Amino acid sequence: MALTAQGRPVNGLARLLVRGVDLVNRRGKSVGVRLVKLTGKRPYAIHPKHLVDQSWHDWYVPYLSAADRVLDVGTSNAAHLLQAAKHCQSIVGVDYDAAQLRIAEGELRARGVSNARVFAWDITQPLPFADRTFDTILFLDVIEHLVPRVAVLREIHRLLTDDGQLLVSGPNSQARHAAPRRALRVLGSRPQDRVHG
Predict the structure, then answer these.
(1) What is the pLDDT confidence band of residue 68, given thresholds at 50, 70 and 90?
(2) Could you give all domains of the chain from N- to C-terminal order, each with its CATH number?
(3) For a surface tag, which of 38, 93, 113, 138 has the fewest beta carbons within 10 Å of its beta carbon?
(4) Residue 165: is its pLDDT beyond 80?
C-alpha cells in the first residue's frame, strides 16, 4: 500500500489523480518545449520561459559588473549565460548535458560572444578552477535538481573571491500556482515531481 509523506494510506482515486496531473505536467512541458522549435522561435527545443524578454526573468543582471569574472553552474543551453555575458568581463558555463552545451556553443558563435565559453562537467564533482577564481557565480534553477547540495555549495564557496557573490534561484514552493503541487506531494507524488513543487 502506498503512503503519503505523513504516513497515511493513499486511496485509488487519489493515486489516479496524482498520475493524471503528473502525466499532464510532463507532457505539457514537453509539448511547450517542442512548440518553440516547431513554430520557428528557435532552431532547437527550449523551454518557452527562456524566450521571455522581461527584466524579472534576468533579475541577476543588476548584480553584475563589467569587471566580474562569472561562473554559470548548470548553464544548460546558456540562456542566462548569454544575457550575463553582456554585463561582465568574462563568463564560463559548466553543465553535464553535452547536447545542451552544443546548443550553447552554437548560440555563442551565432551571436559573436567572445567573452564566454562552456564545457561539460559533472557539477557534483570538484570543478577544475583555482580557489577564489570568480567574482560572481550564477546558480539558477539548478539547486533543486541536485542531491549533494551541501557539497556543491561548498565547492561554489571555494571558487568565490573573498567578497564574491552567489546569485541563486530555485522554485518557490509557496507560490499560488504551487498549491496543487503541494497537495499532490501529500497524496504521494513521485520524488522527481517534487522537484518543481
Answers:
(1) very high
(2) 54-169 (3.40.50.150)
(3) 38
(4) yes
* C-alpha distances in Å from residue 16, one per residue of 5, 10, 105, 186: 17, 10, 42, 14
Using one digit for the tens of pLDDT, what is the confidence trace for 12-22? 676 666 666 55
The chain-wide mean pLDDT, for the chain, equals 79
Exposure pattern of 40-71 as b/e (b: 16+ CB <10 Å)? Answer: eebeeebeeebeeeeeeebebeeebeeebbbb
Question: What is the three-state SS of the chain?
Answer: CCECCCCCECCHHHHHHHHHHHHHHHHHHHHHHHHHHHCCCCCCCCCHHHHCCCCCCCCCHHHCCCCCEEEEECCCCCHHHHHHHCCCCEEEEEECCHHHHHHHHHHHHHHCCCCEEEEECCCCCCCCCCCCCEEEEEEECCHHHCCCHHHHHHHHHHHEEEEEEEEEECCCCCCHHHHHHHHHHHHCCCHHHHCCC
Q: How far apart are CA 42 and CA 48, in angstroms?
A: 10
